[in-house]
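Entry 14: structure prediction run for Aldehyde dehydrogenase. Input pasted below.
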Amino acid sequence: MALPTTEIRTREQVFVGGVWRDSAGGTPVEVRDPATLRPVGTAVLASAEDVDVAVDSAVATFESGTWRGRPAAERAAVLRRAADHLEGLGDLAVDLLTHELGCVRGFAAAAHVPNPIRHLRYYADLIEAGPAEQIREDGTWRSLVVREPVGVVGAITPWNGPLSSPVLKVAPALAAGCSVVLKPPPETPLTALLLADAMQVAGLPEGALSVLPATREVGEHLVRHPGVDKIAFTGSTAAGKRILGLCADRVARVTLELGGKSAAVVLDDADPDTVLDALLPMAMTVNGQLCIAQSRLLVPRHREAEFTDALWARLQALPVGDPFDPATRIGPLVSAAQRDRVRDYLDLAREEGARVLGGDVPDLPGWFVSPALLAGASNSMRAVREEIFGPVMALVAYDDVDSAVALANDSPYGLSGSVWSADSDRALAVASRIRTGMVSVNGAPQAFGTPFGGMKQSGLGREMGPEGLAAYQELKSIALGRAS
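Run finished. Output tokens:
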């Protein structure tokens, strides 16, 4: 597959305050395709000095009202024009994302690119339709409740959602009238910079957005910056805890979308083929590098052997290889470090007593690991409790429904999950007992516009839906006097 045009894969400057400029001490980085290890393009990883300039620009723009002072309809129009620009890129954006991340191209075309476009338009519609002010009366007194932008937002996003994660923060923040400094990761800088192009073309005023791919250290500098009013972060729970502590020092607002180790609870009347047809995409999307991956399969003990054999047969049949091949279902992991992490967890699982099926390194040039199953696993094993972020599933047996619910909830995480049964009402009753931010009955997808986020150590706050917009707004109450 040919590489996208040079213009979107060769970036020699940083995008600071809506302007492309030379970096103040940034580091050039070569992006390589994780499937072939061939060069994809180049970018510049921003420096702390670049962040300082970006935050200063964001603060000045916010205080002047250049963006937040515009009517909601004008802000909505900018978001829609940005969406139109991204949509107009077509295959260029899909191919670039696939080359950077290594996910199966079909998923990039079906979700990774169109979903962010849809979210831009969704928040344009929402801010235009929703009232920013509301009168409240108690019979005697009258007050005006106003929704205002939270201020300057520092957004930090991961590599497994190169465009979707940035848009889930940038779109509602800009819709609300905030100024944003976005820090994408070093692994997938080029796709994130497409958003910078889109907003510049759309006419976003200078200062309202910076897009600065950078290291974790520079990201921490952004978190610590006194000019940043809110941090919106997606990433590991360990990093989220660090960010939460830093934000607490100055009571900065924070939204955290963190890790997961989601359980798929299979009830005793579920059909294996029906379950696995729908479950495997929920577990193996982005080659298992997804926080909502259904990586723990909980099955009745008397059906453990049946489900083990069925699942292992399915995993063995998943084609591993070129993400651009329509037949491929499992592409490479994003980096050598991620591949080694997955392999280390498989070694740990063996030491802990699990029967590890698969998990081999294919004879391919990139960072591949074949799908793996941890059979005969226990929920107490680290490899079952900790987020692996790779094509690995663990199968754990339970004795009754109460123990299944207890196992599903016996996790520091609470991001996603599913319940499977021939009786949807029975599945719903079990789903209501699972402590997680999202749960699916028989693999049903979430309706667009529902909130996304987790309980426990899977995060704080919500993205998507009206809740995603509210996360970037503050409420102010203005006393007006006596009610008429």
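Notes: The chain is about 40% helix and 20% strand. Will compare against the previous run tomorrow.
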